[in-house]
Design brief:
By secondary structure, the protein is α+β, with helices and mostly antiparallel strands. The protein has 5 helices and 10 strands, in the order αββααββαβαβββββ. Among the domains are: about 25 residues, no CATH class; about 110 residues, Mannose-Binding Protein A, subunit A (Mannose-Binding Protein A, Chain A, Roll), CATH 3.10.100.10. It binds calcium ion (CA) (3 copies). One calcium ion binds next to loops.
Length: about 210
Amino acid sequence: MRWSLILVVLAACEFPTPSEDYACRITTDCETGRVCEMGYCVIGQAASGPDASTANPPADGGADAPAPDADPFPAIAAQCVAAGYTMSPTAGGYYRPGAGTASWTNAELDCANDVTGATHLIVLSTTAEVSYMASQLGWIGLSDRITEGTFVTITGETGDQRPWASGQPDNGGGNENCAQMKTGGQLDDDQCGNAHKYVCECDGKPAL
Ligand SMILES: [Ca+2]
Ligand SMILES: [Ca+2]
Ligand SMILES: [Ca+2]
């Protein structure tokens, strides 16, 4: 009795046999909305085939892929705004003053953490940025940490503005390798470990 009961239960649980209405050899044997799999029409769309592959050919590598000459900066700028940067119309870029003071290295780390590969201590590209930094004061992305006497920007940008104060840089005490903006809009090299205010810039250029 017990075994026959189990068999009845198993029979009840057996998967239903697809009716002959859904038998097929190829998908065209099936009605719209079904594809032929393992000899039966099952609900679904054909994943590939001559018609599917040529009906909507990718125009440029995919609908979501940007055009090769698309300017990526608007997207980067949006990330910087989300990270707390604001556009300065007079300075011509996106900036974020540091929340407090820090050593040059920690200031740069704070900036670089905002948007990977796009933010860093401000590099004075233009006189407009010099004027902006003169209103903020503190560390900028310029140092001679690598080679004494050779000041380079944190991004490798060249042709930048360097309004050194009279007599600067002087490598005072033999240990001044980081540039700061002082009152009056002039630069001084100072010990990198000193704590100063600072400004971060978002221009899409990575720190080297
Ligand atoms: Ca700049
Ligand atoms: Ca130096
Ligand atoms: Ca100095």
